[in-house]
């Protein structure tokens, strides 16, 4: 067994391969963003701000996912929402945790997205950088390997 596979043996980001968990899912919070919402994540440099910018990033990110196998997606605490899912991006396994914090009006105010493992996170960031190349949003992600 390779060292990489031995290290991945118990990794949750590999998913469990249950097609019943691969449901069509649309995050309701995406249609309820505060005007000054912020988004940050391990795949990003800095934070994106504004409903249009954040929505564009989330929609583009979801287009890179081959599927979403959900382990949890529900309200969390008094003012939050939590998603935990696995997916693949270009055949590479990815685990994702999304934390959404709502403001007093119940709108999504701050979103944090974390991807793992590091190799998949770097791939994802490069692909996002390619999608947004030449735009201000592109500055939040890695540049393409040339």
Largest sheet geometry: 6 strands, mixed
Structural class: alpha+beta
Unreliable sequence segments: none
Helix content: 10-25%
**Measured distance between first and last alpha carbons:** 32 Å
Tally of individual helices: 3
- Radius of gyration computed on alpha carbons: 15 Å
Shape summary: globular
The secondary-structure element order is HEEHEEEEH
Number of DSSP strands?
Answer: 6
The pLDDT mean sits at: 89
| Order of strands in the sheet with most strands | 2-1-6-5-4-3
Question: How much of the residues is beta strand, in percent?
Answer: 25-35%
What report would you give on this structure?
The chain has helices at residues 3-8, 51-64, 118-131; strands spanning 33-41, 48-49, 69-76, 80-89, 92-102, 108-116. The chain is globular, with a radius of gyration of 15 Å. Strands 2-1-6-5-4-3 form a 6-stranded mixed beta sheet. 23% of the residues lie in helices and 34% in strands. The N and C termini lie far apart (32 Å). A hairpin with a 3-residue loop joins β3 and β4 (80-89). α2 crosses α3. The mean pLDDT is 89. The protein is an alpha+beta fold and 146 residues long.
């Amino acid at each position: 067994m390779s060292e990489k596979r031995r290290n991945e043996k118990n990794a949750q980001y590999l998913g469990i391969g249950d097609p019943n968990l691969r449901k069509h899912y649309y995050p309701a919070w995406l249609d309820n963003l505060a005007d000054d919402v912020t988004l940050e994540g391990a795949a990003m440099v800095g934070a994106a701000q504004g409903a249009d910018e954040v929505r564009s990033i989330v929609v583009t990110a979801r287009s890179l996912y081959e599927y979403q196998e959900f382990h949890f997606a529900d309200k969390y605490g008094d003012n939050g929402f939590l998603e935990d899912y696995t997916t693949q991006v270009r055949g590479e396994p990815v685990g994702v945790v999304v934390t959404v914090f709502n403001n007093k009006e119940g709108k999504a105010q701050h979103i944090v997205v974390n991807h793992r493992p590091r190799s998949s996170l770097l791939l994802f960031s490069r692909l996002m950088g390619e999608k947004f190349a030449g735009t201000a949003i592109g500055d939040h992600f890695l540049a393409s390997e040339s």
